[in-house]
Amino acid sequence: MATLKSPKSKLFYTLILFLSLQAKVLCSIYQVGDLDAWGLPTSSNSKVYTNWANYHELKIGDSLFFLYPPSQDSVIQVTKDSYDSCNIKDPILLMNNGNSLFNITKPGNYYFTSGVDGHCGKAQKLHISVYGNGSFVDDSPASGPAASAPSYPTVFGSIPVQAASVSPSLEIPVLMAAAAGVLLPLLLM
Q1: Contact 87, 57 (CB under 8 A)
Q2: Sheet of strand 99-103: strand arrangement
Q3: How far apart are CA 102 and CA 63, in angstroms?
Q4: How far is residue 93's CA from residue 73's CA, in Å, rounded to a whole number?
Q5: Structural element, H or E, at residue 13
Q6: Is residue 165 a contact partner of residue 145, using CB atoms and an 8 Å limit?
Q7: N- or C-end of the chain: fewer Cβ atoms within 10 A?
């Protein structure tokens, strides 16, 4: 039986620990605005959402978390034209519970603004670009508003499974590494 003191088992457990630490997190939740949350930008930080979007590299499977007082604000997803003109009529999606989560299910451009009149004109709006699997969907007339809309009717959609077309790489999930750490010593007995 292999003991923890043998060089072979030390190497094995070190390898298992290393592989466990290398496991990749597939998706994240990002609070829009970070500590500023979702609200009217201050005059000293009027580009808070533009800067926030430039700082974060979002991908399919990630989620945007909008935190705001529900009695004072809301979040709407809009088309590019509505975003540019601050038109809040006919949004693609309305979120108004104060803890709104938007799941990114496909690549493309996404446009959000406050649902309160006047807030968009005061820079409370967010544009993000999401790349996925090496491709990007641009807002062309052929794709229209439906192309940038989420594929689910409510705020909480399912997280997509990673596409099979992703280039292969050495990724061993933590669970598999842990199982190997338990089963391999039993096989070496």
Answers
A1: no
A2: 29-31, 63-67, 99-103
A3: 5
A4: 14
A5: helix 7-21
A6: no
A7: C
Q: What is the per-residue pLDDT across 97-112, written as a single tens digit (0 to 9) for each?
A: 999 999 999 999 999 9
Q: How far apart are CA 131 and CA 171, in angstroms?
A: 21
Of the candidates 40, 146, 32, 137, the one whose C-alpha atom is nearest the C-alpha of residue 93 is 146
pTM across the whole model: 0.61
128, pLDDT greater than 50: yes
Percent of the chain with pLDDT over 70: 57
Task: Give SS3 for 122.
Answer: helix
Question: Which has more pLDDT, 32 or 158?
Answer: 32
d(CA 27, CA 46): 29
Rounded CA gap, 23 and 116, in Å? 42
